[in-house]
Amino acid sequence: xxxxxxxxxxxxxxxxxxxxxxxxxxxxxxxxxxxxxxxxxxxxxxxxxxxxxxxxxxxxxxxxxxxxxxxxxxxxxxxxxxxxxxxxxxxxxxxxxxxxxxxxxxxxxxxxxxxxxxxxxxxxxxxxxxxxxxxxxxxxxxxxxxxxxxxxxxxxxxxxxxxxxxxxxxxxxxxxxxxxxxxxxxxxxxxxxxxxxxxxxxxxxxxxxxxxxxxxxxxxxxxxxxxxxxxxxxxxxxxxxxxxxxxxxxxxxxxxxxxxxxxxxxxxxxxxxxxxxxxxxxxxxxx
Length: 287
Fold this sequence. Notes:
mainly alpha, Methane Monooxygenase Hydroxylase, Chain G, domain 1, 81% helix
């Protein structure tokens, strides 16, 4: 038993990653080079964005660990390579780790399937990506993970022209996002609505696409979201720009409301606000 290791896990679980890494490091020094400590520190490094440090720790866990630790090290190495844009390596490591987690009967295999879906999608293997997402959805229980997986699956389905199936996946994701009380659900709802509008536009269902894009923009302008999101300015900019690109009309009152929010909340962001204003004015001219 290593008290420092337990304290590090608790800190990591609570999101105190810097403190967790320091505690894991002390645990290695005082409790010995145990592979599970390297594994957990590697995961903490990855969550903190220190990818190469994470990779070094995960390979140490792989070298020193038993069958279970090796399996977890492999799926985490695969996820790391996906973060680094090395998708072929990511797929190889994830598949190896998934096989081992399945033999062990681990519930964590479903999260690994979701990462595999991401890597395959980035390689352009959309059919394989959809199959991986479907496997993930068989066992994911966290609502945010399920909604994210459905959204990613919808993007892959749209890439292969399966628009109706993509819409069904997005409807399920939107239902989950709308039922969530936390900001993360509301923030992600905008992305789900945007993707639905995009697919409807591709299908030629322009009026429906306009209504969904309007809902996405209205979600953007909710006061609690504007105040919570530090980098929120880019969201309406992105949505309006893409609405223009798709040829969608946006109500003038809604565009003016967005401008009012931006000028009220971000009066100091002169350059970015000007860029947003120019795009919104283009939209208004098109009405």
